[in-house]
Amino acid sequence: MNLFTQMEQEDYEQVVVCQDKESGLKAIIAIHDTTLGPALGGTRMWTYSSEEAAFEDALRLARGMTYKNAAAGLNLGGGKTVIIGDPKKDKNEAMFRAFGRFIQGLNGRYITAEDVGTTVSDMDLVYSETDYVTGVSPAFGSSGNPSPVTAYGVYVGIKAAAKKAYGTDSLAGKKIAVQGIGNVAYSMCQYLHEEGAELIVTDINKESVERAVQEFGATAVGINEIYDVECDIYSPCALGATINDDTISRLKANVIAGAANNQLLENRHGDLLQEKGIVYAPDYVINSGGVINVADELLGYNRDRAMKKVETIYDSIERIFEISERDNIPTYVAANRLAEERIETMRKSRRQFLQNGMNILSRGR
Ligand SMILES: NC(=O)C1=CN([C@@H]2O[C@H](COP(=O)(O)OP(=O)(O)OC[C@H]3O[C@@H](n4cnc5c(N)ncnc54)[C@H](O)[C@@H]3O)[C@@H](O)[C@H]2O)C=CC1
Ligand SMILES: O=C(O)CCC(=O)C(=O)O
């Protein structure tokens, strides 16, 4: 991997490599773009197959956060950390405290939170060493686990997508196929069930499926069967890349809207959805409730304010559909355009501000 070439091609600002021999910490903090503000993005802990794979993931995820934060209307840039290790075996207190000191050293250029493999209690340890962490325990005046809030955002996003496809945002009687009943999807299914949707679910974890069957009257199907079921909406809430050549030809839904990150295997699969007239709610817009929630901590956390902001995901998704229709472009391109335009506008206005500052400074000299 040629790191500097990749950084230059995709405009990464900074990559920080952190190691602490005593605790076993091996972390990569990637900061993609801070035009809109400090880079905010979670910390993923994962057993990467190679160091190169870890770098790739950190870079890809950091860039994704630039787009997610910009499209969500947050005054935040994009960054992310990966910690190399097994979240079930390799965690220890010293590791997260050492990580916290590395973050503190960046002096606010990067703010972290949870991601796959890290928890609220890990963030509490990070918090003991740095101010620049969100998603810590409510006991510290913080917002805690972001998943239920992410779930609410996905729920309102599904409603906006249903309105586009079916002319009404009511989900009563709609058949919704949910892939993965984890933290986000469980809370999401509560909302869907309350509204009268019919749920079809799958998960590799049998207990999670059983709970959904019992609590929501869901119908359970096999891991691979979920792509073939008759349904109105397919909601991917487990893995990325589940929208690909194989699944697009099998899916029966007119709407794809779910929590998972990086749902399209390749961009061309977003083009294919557009050609087939399938309404696709771009992943990083519909799942931005978690980051909207943790970002509210930077203002002094207020749950009502955070939830009101999360509700605007409905409008953002509608706006993206409008741009997609107006410019005849796939919805994922419309979302990218929205994010890029906001960053570019702010970049220009900041340049303007600096220019004015220079004029003032040079006055009288
Ligand atoms: N937790 C949050 O606030 C946010 C989560 N996301 C994304 O949403 C997705 C779900 O996140 P969480 O609910 O937090 O994760 P989770 O780990 O709690 O849930 C994922 C579920 O998917 C299941 N699963 C894994 N492989 C599967 C397969 N092949 N088929 C069916 N089920 C499978 C797992 O058993 C688990 O129950 C992830 O892609 C995550 O990156 C995005 C933004 C914020
Ligand atoms: O939701 C979070 O906890 C942090 C934000 C983030 O990393 C994400 O949305 O993927």
Automatic annotation (TrEMBL):
It is an enzyme of class 1 (oxidoreductase). The keyword Metal-binding does not apply. Its EC number is 1.4.1.9. This is Leucine dehydrogenase. Residues 144-351 form the Glutamate/phenylalanine/leucine/valine/L-tryptophan dehydrogenase C-terminal domain. Pfam families: ELFV_dehydrog (PF00208), ELFV_dehydrog_N (PF02812). Keywords: Branched-chain amino acid catabolism, NAD, Nucleotide-binding, Oxidoreductase. It catalyses: L-leucine + NAD(+) + H2O = 4-methyl-2-oxopentanoate + NH4(+) + NADH + H(+). GO terms for biological process: branched-chain amino acid catabolic process. Belongs to the Glu/Leu/Phe/Val dehydrogenases family. InterPro entries: Aminoacid_DH-like_N_sf, Glu/Leu/Phe/Val/Trp_DH, Glu/Leu/Phe/Val/Trp_DH_C, Glu/Leu/Phe/Val/Trp_DH_dimer, Glu/Leu/Phe/Val_DH_AS, Glu/Phe/Leu/Val/Trp_DH_bac/arc, NAD(P)-bd_dom_sf. Pathway: Amino-acid degradation; L-leucine degradation; 4-methyl-2-oxopentanoate from L-leucine (dehydrogenase route): step 1/1. SUPFAM superfamilies: Aminoacid dehydrogenase-like, N-terminal domain, NAD(P)-binding Rossmann-fold domains. The lineage of its organism: Bacteria, Bacillati, Bacillota, Bacilli, Bacillales. Gene3D superfamilies: Leucine Dehydrogenase, chain A, domain 1, NAD(P)-binding Rossmann-like Domain. It comes from Alkalicoccus halolimnae. The keyword Iron does not apply. NAD(+) binds at G180, I181, G182, N183, V184, A185. GO terms for molecular function: L-leucine dehydrogenase activity; nucleotide binding. The active site is at K80 (proton donor/acceptor).
